């Protein structure tokens, strides 16, 4: 590059940067799979690790004939735990945001508040936290996501599909080109 400060960059510099970012971005499916594998190390007191939990959640979505995007979201909904447990829904949602619909993004972003119906009262929190989203068009899908797939997926005996089953779906969802640097922008 011909600059050492952003305010010195030229159009051709930014076009070259865009090409390099697009090359790296093409590896996103591999990055996601790596992050998912990191969840295998996180047991956090549950009967199964966090990768198994994601696989169970996604398996339930498959068996419920959910869309491919929703299946991948079910698999990746806790991917933010690789970085932080406390705000994992926000982190996970931001990771998948460029690749999924607004509704799917919102479901992942809010899934902990929806899941809170099942345990928030035990922690002195509002078990009706989900009610603030009642008027959202994605509310019913978020309810199904958490009540039927997510909160039920901590069973070491549940017959779960392996990560390899989901890899082609990960490849398709996370291969969308989201980088658009051009001279016209």
- Outline the biggest β-sheet: none
The quaternary organization reads as: single chain
Query: Could you say which overall geometry the principal axes of the C-alpha atoms support?
Result: globular
Strand content: under 5%
Please tell me how large the radius of gyration is. Answer: 19 Å
* CATH-defined fold name: Hypothetical protein af1432
End-to-end C-alpha gap: 20 Å
CATH superfamily (homologous) name: Hypothetical protein af1432
Order of helices and strands: HHHHHHHH
- What fraction, in percent, of the residue positions are helical? 40-55%
CATH architecture: Orthogonal Bundle
Number of domains: 1
Helical segment tally?
8
Question: How many distinct beta strands?
Answer: 0
Could you name the CATH class?
A: Mainly Alpha
Q: Average pLDDT, to the nearest integer?
A: 94
Low-confidence stretches: 180-185
- Helix-and-strand structural type: mainly alpha
